[in-house]
Design a protein that fits this description.
Layout (H helix, E strand, L loop, with lengths): L1 E6 L2 E4 L4 E9 L4 E9 L6 E9 L3 E6 L7 E6 L4 E6 L8 E9 L13 E2 L3 E6 L1
Parallel strand pairs: 2-11
Antiparallel strand pairs: 1-3, 3-8, 4-5, 4-9, 5-6, 7-8, 9-10, 9-11
């Protein structure tokens, strides 16, 4: 099992920034994909960004078109953590942000169903 704990959400004005953190513990693997998804009330859980790493493929990232150039996903190996730096926030970025993970693969897929482990989520609210 893998345990994921998100933190860093909050209320911010449009144009502001937030940094989300996801702390991972439990099983390890030589190949990992971790992603961020968000869900607004009454909507599906949507892909935001993902990062993969392995000894043979290195580190790769993928972003939803809506966040490209504003959000940056990164990892810190020493702390088993993944971060989502969010700049230029917009009201439509509002939602619960979830950290997700999948082991034994490096495919940067976007459907939520492709990810096995999930955190509890952290609320991000962007006011206009």
């Amino acid at each position: 099992q893998v345990q994921l704990v998100e933190s860093g959400g909050g209320l911010v004005q449009a144009g502001g920034s937030l940094r989300l953190s996801c702390a991972a513990s439990g099983r390890t693997s030589s190949s990992v994909v971790m992603g961020w998804f968000r869900q607004a009330p009454g909507t599906e859980r949507d892909f935001v960004a993902a990062i993969s790493w392995s000894s043979w493929s290195g580190v790769n990232t993928k972003y939803a078109d809506s966040v490209k150039g504003r959000f940056t996903i990164s990892r810190e190996n020493a702390n088993n953590a993944v971060y989502l730096q969010m700049n230029g926030l917009k009201p439509e970025d509002t939602g619960v942000y979830y950290c997700a993970a999948r082991l034994g693969s490096v495919g940067l897929t976007t459907p939520a169903r492709d990810y096995v482990y999930w955190g509890q989520g952290t609320q991000v609210t962007v006011s206009s």
